[in-house]
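tmp note - Mitochondrial import inner membrane translocase subunit
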Amino acid sequence: MALQVSESDQIKQFKEFLGTYNKVTENCFMDCVKDFTTREVKAEESSCSESCLQKYLKMTQRISMRFQEYHIQQNEALAAKAGLLGQPR
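out:
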């Protein structure tokens, strides 16, 4: 059975994504772009921006993995508490 997400939930998720995207973009821009005297993006600015985004993506991935691990541990602890683990079927 497929889980269906309501349109309002999809809109909410998209707004959250856009908010996060805008924050990351602004933070990386403020940290990396220093020269406004030319239209060209300098190599240092480009490299800094790429590193900034990579760091954010890696951090987000790591947090997600830790969050999943935590929930697995919590579910196992609850199952053990309820006596559901380790019993033969």
